[in-house]
């Protein structure tokens, strides 16, 4: 890969140097993908990338390069937070979706209770958990939002929450 003087790796091409046979960048930054090294070089610098790769065992270098490329793209997109900003955004989105799921499951439970007043046990979908018709206490994961109580009263059932 790196020994072929006709096809230097993306790193050596960008840095305008001869691609040596033992070029540390050649296996990870092929000549056909110059943007990959350019973005990583812009954010971290060739010297730092080289140090990182040299300090890692060979079997971990591919994953390290993938992480560096991801972080470099994230840093260009969001210079302050980088990939942490993207992770935070996704975590918030997951939390919102979990809350929506809990509300939907509570509504399903309420509808099941209204249609099955004569049945003593209600099954919560996807959990196998059973509730008797007297307590209607929902597990914490179904009502994972601020509330003084996770108990549904008979009045709230009849009013539809």
Account of the protein in words:
Belongs to the LOB domain-containing protein family. This is LOB domain-containing protein. Residues 7-108 form the LOB domain. InterPro entries: LOB. The structure is a single chain. A two-stranded antiparallel ribbon has the order 1-2. 53% of the residues lie in helices and 4% in strands. The longest helix has 33 residues, at 83-115. It folds into two domains: 10-77, no CATH class; 92-159, no CATH class. By secondary structure, it is mainly alpha-helical. Mean pLDDT is 79; it is low at 1-5 and 140-161. The chain has helices at 10-15, 34-44, 46-55, 58-77, 83-115, 154-159, and strands at residues 121-123, 130-132.
Summary of the model, kept short:
The protein is mainly alpha-helical and 161 residues long. It is built from 6 helices and 2 strands.
The N- and C-terminal alpha carbons lie at a distance of 67 Å
Q: Let me know the number of strands.
A: 2
Find the structural class using helix and strand composition.
mainly alpha
Strand order of the largest sheet: 1-2
Number of helices: 6
Strand content: under 5%
Number of domains: 2
**Over the alpha carbons, how many angstroms does the gyration radius reach?**
28 Å
> What about the largest sheet?
2 strands, antiparallel
The succession of helices and strands, N to C, reads HHHHHEEH
Helix residue percentage: 40-55%
The low-confidence runs, each spanning 5 or more residues with pLDDT under 50, are 1-5, 140-161
Shape: elongated
Protein name: LOB domain-containing protein
InterPro entries: LOB
Organism: Vicia faba (Broad bean)
Family: Belongs to the LOB domain-containing protein family.
């Amino acid at each position: 890969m790196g020994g072929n003087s006709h096809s230097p790796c993306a790193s050596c091409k960008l840095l305008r140097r001869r691609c040596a046979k033992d070029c540390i960048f050649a296996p990870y930054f092929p000549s056909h993908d110059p943007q990959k090294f350019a973005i990583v070089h812009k954010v971290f610098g060739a010297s730092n990338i080289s140090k990182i790769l040299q300090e890692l065992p060979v079997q971990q270098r591919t994953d390290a390069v993938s992480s560096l490329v991801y972080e470099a793209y994230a840093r260009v997109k969001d210079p302050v937070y980088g990939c942490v900003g993207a992770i935070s955004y996704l975590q918030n989105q997951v939390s919102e979706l979990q809350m929506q799921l809990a509300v939907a499951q509570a509504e399903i439970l309420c509808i099941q209770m209204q249609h099955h007043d004569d049945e003593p046990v209600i099954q919560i979908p996807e959990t196998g958990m059973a509730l008797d018709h007297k307590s209607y206490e929902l597990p914490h994961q179904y009502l994972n939002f601020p509330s003084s109580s996770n108990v549904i009263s008979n009045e709230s059932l009849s009013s539809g929450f």
